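Task 17 of the worksheet. Students: predict the tertiary structure of the chain below and write it out as structure tokens. Keep your answer in the requested format; marks are given for formatting as well as content.
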Amino acid sequence: MSSLRIVFLVFAALVCVRSYGTDAKTLDIYFIDVEGGQSTLIVTPTGQTLLIDTGYAGDGIGTSKPGDPHQARDANRIVAAARDAGVKHIDYC
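Model answer:
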């Protein structure tokens, strides 16, 4: 094996090892099923969050008045998705 090939292989191995240990920041988009459509939670690479369309405040049974907030189906789904995303608060709504 030529010395150039060995240098290349060592360099490639170092690049692979170095990139394996870094956490890449990504744009994460979560689609959440809410009454009449979907809510979208966006988490930017810098950690900022944007929530679009929060759904219906009620319990999902079709009444015109919001019910008990702890029974609010759409809100509970959004909270569950935010927890899965590691979100502690929503920056923009």
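Marker's comment: Strands lie at 28-34, 37-43, 49-52. The longest strand covers residues 28-34.
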